[in-house]
Amino acid sequence: QITQRGIGNGISLLITVGILADLPKALSDAxxxxxxxxxxxxxxxxxxxxxxxxxxxxxxGIIAVTQAQRKIPVQYAKR
Length: 79
Description:
Layout: E1 2-3, E2 6-7, H1 10-35, H2 42-67
Helix pairs in contact: 1-2
């Protein structure tokens, strides 16, 4: 969070900037791998679809773990 005294969580900001800086190169490499493959190479397209499917499964898993709750019954002592 950005506070009045400066930027909080500086290391998180540095990690995020590092990931975002590498993102365009990674996306262009993935695009070249999938769509610029030699003609008739169905295996590369299959690998691309598998990569997208695994990405969606990982995102769904992260959302499920983030949203998970465990209800713990609390018993209060009687006075």
